Amino acid sequence: MKRVSLVLAAAAMSVVAAAGSAAASQLVVYEGEGFSGRSAVISACGTSNLPYHGSYKWYSDGQSGRMYNQRDAQGVANFTLAPDRNAEQRTSVGWQSIFIVC
């Protein structure tokens, strides 16, 4: 009986974990202008530094993204990417970091 309870508890924890990992907004940053070169996908809640600054695409899925001109989301947010609208820019950006609000 104890083993069955442990299995059920583990299954319940899996469901809770899966529910908490719903799709999040994503920022794809590119090394070059026009979405060229290497790219990186940023979707983690909180602060992330941008490895590339050539161009970007924002895929909105309910979370907003506060953009900063300094690393580690220091200072005042320069721009906010909307939680309900995709965005992109084919030319370089000065942003150094993002704070995804979850």
Automatic annotation (TrEMBL):
Keyword Aminoacyl-tRNA synthetase, does the record have it?
Answer: no
Q: Which organism is it from?
A: Streptantibioticus silvisoli
Q: Which InterPro entries match?
A: Antimic/Inh_G_crystallin-like (IPR015791), Antimicrobial_MiAMP1 (IPR015201), G_crystallin-like (IPR011024)
Q: Does the keyword Signal apply?
A: yes
A Pfam family that this protein carries is MiAMP1
Domain of life from the UniProt record: Bacteria
Q: Which keywords are on file for this protein?
A: Signal
Signal peptide span: 1-19
Which terms does the UniProt entry file under GO BP? Answer: defense response; negative regulation of growth
Question: What's the name of the protein?
Answer: MiAMP1 family antimicrobial peptide
Q: Which residues cross the membrane?
A: none
Which SUPFAM superfamilies would you find in this protein's record?
gamma-Crystallin-like
